[in-house]
Amino acid sequence: MRIVVISDTHIPFRAKSLPKIIYDEIEKSDLIIHAGDFVSFEFYNELKSLKNIIAVFGNMDEMKLLDYLKEVEIFEIEGFKFGLFHGLGPPVGLKQRVLKKLENYGKFDVIIFGHSHIAYYNYENGIHILNPGSPTDKFFGHKRTYGIIEIKNKNISFEIREVIE
User: Fold this and answer.
1) 146-163 pLDDT, tens digit each
2) Residues 6+ apart with CB under 8 A from 20
């Protein structure tokens, strides 16, 4: 199982579309996980037409997306329990706020969040924690990034990749 993880795409405000490399990655993958801030309903529909997608509502998303997306998604892929939440508030303390928000949903193997546009990965207290950053905006994170998760033979791996175009 190969998963493309993106967040904070802000289309059409930060970019008119995703960078070509992201579309290439989506084509080679089985699933898209989007941690919120699509911004436009049209872009959400575009991604949905390309691949299966698991996504949450972000603070900058069109209100119409609330009819289709939840604030939190809890799901399992090949035996790994995932928690997905966009995030809120300033970058300082964001990870702690995400963990606090998800603490009542039980134990996770993987937590994915966005909001800060700053890529982050760490394995702590038995949990893989990933923020893919933003593939379209480098104002906060200083580079455009996305994540790749691979699950093979009950092993899971994570990679943050930089968009270079």
Assistant:
1) 999 999 999 999 999 999
2) 165
